[in-house]
Amino acid sequence: MMVFAEKLGWKIQKQDEQEVQQFCSQVGLRNQVFKVWMHNNKQALKKRQM
């Protein structure tokens, strides 16, 4: 999931919505779960880099 989030630039934009939905269905997650995970890990990644 981290590789996919990095590919998106840690942001989900309108043009990426279908790609995100496809990824979530392959992995077995709801879109909202992935969005929350991405938000949480983006913050944690910033803290680790400091």
From TrEMBL:
GO biological process, one term: regulation of developmental process
UniProt xrefs under Gene3D superfamilies: Homeodomain-like
Superkingdom, natural source: Eukaryota
GO molecular function, one term: DNA-binding transcription factor activity
GO cellular component entries: nucleus
The protein's name: Putative transcription factor ZF-HD family
